[in-house]
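Batch manifest, entry 17 of 40.
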Amino acid sequence: MTEQAPQFALWLPVSLGLGVALWFVLPSPGLWIAALGAFGAIAAGGSALGGRVGRLALWFGLVAAIGLALVWMRAERVAAPRLDRPVTTSVTGKVERVERLVGRGVTRITLVDEGEHPGLRVRVSFPDSDAAAVQSGARISLRARLMPPAPASVPGGYEFARLAWFKGIGATGRGFGEPRTLSPPSGGFWAWLDRVRGRLTAHVQISVGDAEGGVAASFVTGDQGGVPDDVAQALRDSGLTHLLSISGLHVTAVVGFVMIATRRLLALSMHAATHWHLSLIGAIAAAGAGVGYSLLAGGEVPTVRSCIAALLVLLGLALGREAITLRLVAAGAFMILLILPEALIGASFQLSFAAVTAIVALHEVPWVRERLMRREEPWWAAFLRLLAGLLLTGIVVEAALAPIGLYHFNRMGAYGAFANIIAIPLTTFVIMPLEAVALLLDPLGLAGPVWLLVKWTLSLLIALAEWTATLPGGVTLAPAMPQAAFGLMVAGGLWLVLWRGWTRLAGVVPFMAGAMWAWVSPVPDILITGVGRHVGVVANGKVHLLRTRTGDYVRDLMSGVTAAPDIMPLQDSRFARCGRDSCVADIWKHGRRLRLLATRSSVFIDRRRFEPACADADIVVSDRRLPYWCAPRWLKADRTLLQRTGGLAIDTSTGVVRSVAEENGRHPWAHRRIGRQPQ
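Output type: structure tokens
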């Protein structure tokens, strides 16, 4: 226990995160209160016990209870007006944010309505050509078809309603025509900063051009809207998508460049070199650059985490202390969870801290540090040592990120460690310095050749991503992972990196248990979206869709949740018979037949034909309300039922039916409607 004493502080953010995670996992206020009571009992028991173990129990219970209470209070504090049904309406208000998604040809505008629905924050999408003149801070009027924030379409899908709740977004939709500007942009630091960010993003995209321009802009401002979908997918599949999100790599490059440049420039003066504390001045300048860069990049979680870490590193360097430690990472995580506890469940937070924690923990292992330490040796040996260090770090980071990628995105790149050996030095030492030089030369009109070099180097980066993603076995798909399985893997991983000595290997047990649980979890046989319009039947490694005309979003959703890469129409399968208005599918599993009847049009179906078809089916699915006389043997998933349950996932072999409503429980985004609703 004495050996672990220096590590105990590292478990404080873990305890805080456990409390936050339990609030999201437990479905109802009664269970949240019970969890608070349990944590309080642990803390009280630890206080009564005394000694080191007692103090540990006291702090664990106290901090975990604080985490649960913090996120509960924040969920109540951010409550804002929301729509409860679709509506076509006019919206008038001041623009809070403009996001130009050049890769999709869309501009997203966020504003708070001052007209028919006062206080309602809406996010509306327009074609680029219609919203080209809209700027942050301007007061505008627009017409739009608005919808309530969408819950997950099927169990295990993306829960936008939860994200919208914490962002205060009460409606989303598409606009009609061009927004009308009522007054030009006015005061406000954040609106001004958003306009600067938008102009800089557009300038970089135009200067570089094509897909490379979108990637270049993401390095400068963090705006990924100009990255085409195919390039973004290639970067994800090759393990390079972290390059698009401004985080440790980018902030470190900026902070390091400013600190070194400041010290070198001041050292040119004999007076400054002999009378001033150049390290302290360089650290202050670098801190200012890091904060400014983070603000310009939009203040997303990876950027804030990296900025906090950079500031702590600079403070350590200024004080002559070893700065890059697990305590620094823990302090950054603790600070972010205190301010934004909901960040814990986001892929951005998890990927960012998992990568940094794995890197620091690896290089704190004595035998690793000893073998990778610089020493007097030939240049080629030093290069091979550096290459081995990069490869080992890449493999460890990929292992740390794999469960998170599979849980959130249902896919993982297999060769990310090797691609990063080239991509990280190329980005850090070539692309970003070239972009900095180009921006400095822009006012002089001399940046053209440098922007051309930026484009060429980014072409190499994109080519590397596309080649890596297309290698045999380059992408691993996995169906939606149970939360408990993911939790076991996270617990095992934390034990592996935070515990000391050989007993840390005990973390392998829960990690492998979670991995096996995820591996053997059954894939649902039938997926039904929340409105009953789309149905997917999983058979023979393929997803068979009810409707022949289905958008990419639904196709990607069905493929991701089931890990089935092939999509085909249900009417083309051998086990289904489809007409214009409905399909009947016979699903065989473990020697048992289950009959599915699904409607796929709004045309009236005669009772004389439909009633016996219902009686002959085990499951009936429809996006309309079905009459009482439609009585299947097992489940009638019509509009009436789906309005209560949301999307469904059905395992025909076990009879288990999971619903989106069950996953959301009684969390506020699942049932709360606050403020005046449209008439």
